[in-house]
């Protein structure tokens, strides 16, 4: 429904949100955490150096702290299940299924070995393949896992079931123990620490998955000070995926992360945006087009791309902004990335 309807105006938001877009970023709690680890390791080292075999404990602690920091920054040090290139398709067994809402489930697939990570980097996706007995050609669909890239032994997919969608229907019909073929990683937007001063994420429905991957990488890395503004549109409140995780980030990093929710069919007591993502909403909450080193990311159904950023023509062709809302607001093609 969201993809097929035109975008109506959302309720205008107070202009104080524009001031948020230009606030100076503050240090994160992770910075303090990792600084504390470094201090403990350094301070403990002096003691252990005089304890013979205990020297190894210092080295292990330092190595663990370094590995944790690298994992937080997306620099995975473990062996990878998916290596790209000519690796081919890999069958993964479905380990568990969790009902998220009326049409969305979270699927956990076991990697071939317990000590493997997926091998996905920021930002990248993975392909799935399924061919039913009556299908002439296999269905191949990309998904972005929603678990941390450094987690070992599994990957999690958040999948909404679409009427007539062969892959989403098959996934929702799967039972633990069954296998699905995977291939990847499929590179998207390469992210480096502090690549941009401020990014904006405009998502609709399950388009939140690649946005959440990017947000995790930023806020798991104590060296990354990027400011993030998110606009997340859905039909109903129940459709807001990963809401708890997003609220936790907003509470932890109030000076660096803000999320604005828009519902097509809000409940009576809803205080967020109503209708669809509008020009007024984006003008109020996004960083100014003339701001230094910003990037706008868009991911959602076809109708959203057309209205917000212009359609993406192919994986290698981002397409033009084509009179979209972002172009009307003064953003250039180079400032926008369509997942």
TrEMBL record:
GO terms for biological process: ergosterol biosynthetic process. FAD binds at residues 141-143, 158, 160, 167-168. It comes from the Eukaryota. One of its GO terms (molecular function) is cytochrome-b5 reductase activity, acting on NADH. Residues 87-192 form the FAD-binding FR-type domain. It catalyses: 2 Fe(III)-[cytochrome b5] + NADH = 2 Fe(II)-[cytochrome b5] + NAD(+) + H(+). Its cofactor is FAD. Its main location: mitochondrion. It is a single-pass membrane protein. The keyword Membrane applies. Its EC number is 1.6.2.2. CDD domains: cyt_b5_reduct_like. May mediate the reduction of outer membrane cytochrome b5. This is NADH-cytochrome b5 reductase. It comes from Cudoniella acicularis.
